[in-house]
Amino acid sequence: MSETRELQVREKQEVNVPAEQTRPGLVFSPLVDIFETDKDIVLLADMPGVSTDNLDVDLRENILTLSAEVVSGKGENEQDILKEYAVGKFYRQFTLSEVIDQSRIEAQLTNGVLRLVLPKVEKATPRKISITS
Amino acid sequence: MTARRLFDFPGLGWRNPFAELERMQREMDRLFGDQFFRSGWPGLHAGVFPSVNVTEDQDHFYIRSELPGMAADDLDIQAAGNSVTISGERRIPAEGDNVRYHRREREAGKFSRIVTLPNGADMDKVSAGLTNGVLTVTIAKSEATKPRQISIK
Which Pfam families match (chain B) (predicted)? Predict the structure, then answer.
């Protein structure tokens, strides 16, 4: 990266959750980076306002679900002067094509960014196959 | 008695008289796909990163902004005159050479934004906090503008 560019405003993406909500409120889709190394699939998700207590990561039958409640820091007596963004839940689902070793999944939440390391099962890691003649 | 029975009957839809309106709004949202129609979005937008929410209570003004992945060191907050400048740089460290991306939606870059406050902000009493990627700048209101109880003699 030679030159840093200016960040542009991006509106939070509102989503329709397949399951009906029990509690009313807006639901947003977090922005993610997903990359793969030989051993892991790593997912980074921007989830501002989410604490570890409110985050739920679920993996079953190859479907990874991220859902999080956001507690607004706004006090009871505060009145809006300017409102440019809305606060709501985060929800996003992914289908994983690889087999994941469930027991070694690591999740870390730092400054509102979730880092999820999903190790591939040994079998799925590419091996160099030597050819004997 | 009749009224109670009517209201209690679940099939009549009395519990949420706005259900039909909400359904219509969802239809509209889908048709137009425009942020203008979106609920919870007042349509005010400065077009400058980061988006901020400004609130007030009796003693303070609060500026809040969602800045995930930023540490306190990456941010520079300055108060001058009647305004607060929030600037910084969001860095996303490289993940090594041997990675293959499936999705890359998060962005890195510099930003700078100035937020002008209403009259009555005491710029000598500004504090800022960063929790879970949400920045909160708290500005005290000056004594002169606070509501006062006037006693009658």
Answer: HSP20
**What 3 state SS string does B16-60 have?**
CCCHHHHHHHHHHHHHHCCHHHCCCCCCCCCCCCCCEEEEECCCE
Task: Say what the ipTM of the complex is.
Answer: 0.80
Q: Measure A133 CA to nearest chain B CA, in Å.
A: 31
Q: Please name every residue paired with B104 in a beta bridge, in sequence order, or none if there are none.
A: A33
In chain A, positions 38-77, which contact chain B (CB-CB < 8 Å)? 38, 42, 44, 46-51, 73-75, 77
Domains in chain B: boundaries = 1-42, 46-93+100-145
**pTM, rounded to two decimals:** 0.74
A84-104 pLDDT, tens digit each: 888 989 999 999 887 888 888
Return the CATH fold of A26-72+86-123. Answer: Immunoglobulin-like (2.60.40)
Domain boundaries, chain A: 26-72+86-123
